[in-house]
Amino acid sequence: MLKEAPKKKKKQVDYYHPSPWQYFWRLQKEGWRRAITPGLMYFFMSLIMLALQAITIVWLQIALGIVCIAGGIFFNAHLVFHFGSAHYDFFLTGEVYRRREKEEGYVNAPDHHLEKEYRPWKGFFIGFLMSIPVIILSILAGTFDGKAGEGDVLWVYAMLAGCAVVPITWLRNYVPSMANLSYYWTALTILVPIVVSGVFYILGAWHNRRKRAEKEERERAVKAAAEAAREARLHHEQTEAQRLKTLQSKKKK
Fold first, then answer.
1. Rounded to the nearest 10 degrees, how much is the dihedral formed by the CA atoms of 163, 44, 70, 132?
2. Backbone angles phi and psi of 4, in degrees to 5
C-alpha cells in the first residue's frame, strides 16, 4: 500500500515583527484596500452625474450634479469613519502586546497585523490614494486642452472622476469669464477626499475610544453600585444581629 507523502506545513508569517520594507509594502496594500470602496462610490456618483448632463435645464443639471458630489462625499466619510474605528481596535490590541513585550522581552503574536493599527495620518493617506486617478487625469486633460484627443480624454475623465471635472465644465460653459479655465485646476479637487478621509478616520477612532470609555464608566458604576449594595446588606445584617443579641440579653435579665 502506497503511503501518502506528508503534507508540507505552511511557513507561518509573522505580521507582528515585519522588516521595514515588509511594513512599507503592507501599508500600501492596506491603504489601497481601504481606498477602493470609497473610490468606487465616487465612481458610481460620477457615472450618475455624467448621465445627468443630458438634462437641458441648466439649474436642474447643476443641482442634481451637486447632489451626486455630496453623495460621494457622504459615502467617503461614512466608510472611512468605520475604517478608523476598526483600526483603533487593532491599535489597542497592539498596545497590549507591546506592554507584554516590554515586560517579557518577546511576544509571539504572528497574526497581529501591525499595518492595520490606527495612526492619525492613515486617513489622509487613504484619501491621497483615492485621488491618484484624478491627479493623472487632470494632467492629461490639461495637456490635451484645445488639442486633438481632448474629447476622448474628457470622456474618460467624466466617467472615472466626473465629480472632479464636471464642475469645471460648468464654469467653462456657463460663466463667460471662465471659458478658458484650465483643466489643470481639477487637480485641486483631490483636497476633498484627502481632507474628508483624514478627518473622518480620526473621528472614527475617537468615537470608538469614547464608546469604550463610556462602557468602562458604566461597568465601574455597576460595580460601585453592587459594592454599595453589598456593604448595605452587611451593615443591615450586622445591625439585625446586634438587635437580636440585645433582645436576648434583655430576656435573660
1. -50
2. -70, 140
CA–CA distance from 72 to each of 63, 144, 199, 252 (Å)? 15, 27, 16, 87
Radius of gyration of the chain measured on its C-alpha atoms: 31
At a CB cut-off of 8 Å and minimum separation 6, what does 63 contact?
Answer: none
CA distances from 50 to 15, 27, 33, 43, 181 (A): 43, 34, 26, 10, 20
Query: Model-level pTM?
Result: 0.84
**pLDDT value of position 59:** 93
Residue 236's Cβ-side half-sphere holds a number of Cα atoms within 13 Å equal to 6
How far is it, in rounded angstroms, from Cα 140 to Cα 158? Answer: 13
Residue 57: phi and psi, rounded to 5, are: -80, 110
How far apart CA 23 and CA 112 sit, in angstroms, is 12
How big is the CA angle at 188 (ends 74 and 77), to the nearest 5 degrees? 15
Provide the CB-side half-sphere exposure for 186 (13 A, CA). 32
The per-residue pLDDT for range 37-93, each reduced to its tens digit, is 999 999 999 999 999 989 989 999 999 999 999 999 999 999 999 999 999 999 999
Residues 171, 138: Cα–Cα separation, whole Å:
16
The string of pLDDT tens digits covering residues 107-157 is 778 888 999 999 999 999 999 999 999 999 999 999 998 888 888 999 999
Please name the residue that has the C-alpha cell 512599507: 24
